[in-house]
Specification:
Layout lengths: L1 H25 L14 H19 L4 E2 L2 E2 L1 E4 L4 E4 L2 E3 L4 H22 L2 H5 L2 H17 L2 H9 L4 H27 L4 H9 L5 H21 L1 H7 L2 H4 L10 E4 L1 H4 L24 H4 L20 H13 L6 E4 L1 H4 L9 H22 L4 E7 L6 E2 L5 E11 L5 E8 L5 E3 L5 E3 L4 E10 L8 E10 L6 E9 L3
Antiparallel strand pairs: 1-2, 3-4, 4-5, 6-7, 8-10, 9-10, 10-14, 11-13, 11-15, 12-14, 15-16
């Protein structure tokens, strides 16, 4: 009996630490990452990308084209102004094509050079870089930030933290305001904000987008990339052994270890890596690139700049951490041009060219002809055969247009309608009943093809044609 009791106690004692270990591994508390500031070629490229992308985001809504906001998605009016071109809900096809181009571009650049999008152009990366810069300006360097967070609360610490969050919130609010400015005329929106005279949806989206910017770039940061972004999970399906990735050259770097500058480290059995961990300190997601390719590496190349700087100071060759391929790491020749890249490039080029060609040659006019199906035809008092149609005309231009409608296909075919010219306001659709008449002697068969021709009065090259059927007694 005593032996059984001892066994039970032993099992309980063993079970407790196992349970604790499992719970800790599943619900590990986040450790704040303090990315160290880095300088170098890729840092310059990343800063340039941030400057250009945010510059476009904050400046474009304030620009105008012929009296209209350069980019404006006017949902109530169902007009979408993009660089002087007006799109309508009927132009949804172009949006679908642009989304396909964007997806193919992502596939192409990922197959070519990994997560370029994540490291240099993703909104999460761009706004996080801005928030990190503001944090460094207010709280200081990485070591100063860590020291400040470990210090007990004081008036100085509260002042610094409050200043940082105040700047973050102001910047986030302006970001949310700019976002809504793409959907509501931004100059009117600015006046309404100053007068506190916004509608409920405008308030909602300004505050919602501001909160998202503040939360994602200020608090969540690398957690968005690690846990929330699906791209990190399926990128492995788009890369292969010839894809450019950021990698640590273990054959050159190992065995790693600290040493004094100028010694013959190879004679002591050391590689080029001095184990300074600078590459880890500059990483915005807190990974160690020396552990190999990891899904939470966003490809920002900060570790490359940091390691090159250390190598230069030690007098070693740069490139211990570099853009390379898995095959090149194993001494094989690079194969940048390969079937996958060629196929992606050709498809991307064809679809992109077709989309922009279609947009460039898009007619700001649409016509639909619907034949009256209640009767096949009727004979008029003059002995003519008559068919009735409903013609729908949509003016997708910025100005009011006047059009002239004619019909062809049968000799002597005439049309009768209640107006001489068709006038349509910008963005409007009108329906016009049309009676087409012809002498039955000119009909060669029971069902004949005819063509409605709609031409703008003051723009002779703006012509649209629509086919229809004319039914007769033969």
């Amino acid at each position: 009996m005593s032996e059984l009791s001892n066994k039970e106690v032993t099992s309980a004692e063993v079970a407790v630490p196992i349970s604790d270990e499992v719970e800790q591994s599943l619900y590990a508390k986040r450790k704040k990452i303090y990315p160290r500031e880095v300088h170098g070629l890729f840092a310059i490229l990343r800063a340039t990308g941030v400057f250009v992308l945010l510059g476009l985001y904050y400046i474009v809504p304030w620009l105008e084209w012929e009296g209209t906001q350069l980019v404006l998605f006017d949902l109530p009016a169902r007009k979408f102004y993009v660089f002087g071109i007006v799109f309508w809900p009927q132009d949804f096809f172009y949006l679908a094509m642009l989304l396909i181009v964007a997806a193919l571009s992502l596939f192409f650049f990922t197959a070519l050079a990994g997560r370029l999008w994540c490291g240099f152009a993703c909104p999460q990366t761009v706004w996080t870089e801005v928030f990190l810069s503001m944090e460094r300006m207010i709280e200081g360097s990485r070591s100063q930030q860590m020291k400040l967070d470990k210090a007990p609360w004081s008036l100085r610490k509260f002042r610094i933290k409050a200043t940082k969050h105040f700047v973050w919130i102001v910047f986030s609010l302006y970001t949310g305001f700019t976002f809504v400015g793409f959907f509501s005329p931004i100059k009117e929106l600015a006046i309404n904000v100053l007068m506190f005279d916004l509608g409920p949806w405008e308030w909602f989206w300004i505050l919602f987008y501001s909160f998202a910017t503040y939360g994602n770039a200020g608090w969540l940061r690398e957690q968005v990339c690690t846990y929330m972004c699906p791209y990190a999970r399926f990128q492995s399906a788009m890369i292969d052994k010839d894809t450019l990735i950021i990698s640590y050259d273990a054959a050159r770097g190992e065995s790693r270890g600290s040493r004094k500058k100028g010694i013959d480290h190879k004679a002591e059995g050391l590689g080029d890596c001095i184990d300074c961990t600078i590459c880890v300190q500059v990483c915005p997601t807190g990974i160690d690139i020396r552990d190999g390719l990891q899904y939470n590496c966003i490809g920002c190349a900060a570790c490359i700049d940091a390691c090159n700087d250390v190598m230069e100071k030690m007098g070693y060759d740069k490139g211990l951490v570099r853009y390379t391929t898995e095959n090149m790491l194993h001494g094989e020749s690079p194969h940048f041009i390969r079937p996958r890249i060629v196929v992606y490039a050709i498809i991307l080029l064809l679809i992109t060219a077709s989309t922009f060609y279609a947009i460039a040659n898009r007619d700001p006019l649409a016509m639909d002809v619907i034949r009256d199906r209640n009767s096949l035809y009727r004979e008029t008092n003059e002995g003519l055969v008559e068919n009735v149609y409903i013609v729908k005309v949509m003016n997708m231009d910025n100005v009011r247009r006047s059009y002239h409608l004619t019909v062809a296909g049968i000799d002597g075919l005439i049309i009768d309608m209640d107006r001489k010219y068709i006038e349509v306001a910008s963005g409007s659709i009108i329906e016009i009943p049309i009676r087409a008449k012809v002498d039955p002697e000119n009909l060669k068969k029971r069902s004949s093809e005819i063509e409605f021709i709609l031409q703008a009065d003051h723009q002779k090259d703006l012509v649209i044609r629509e086919e229809a059927r004319f039914i007769g007694p033969i």
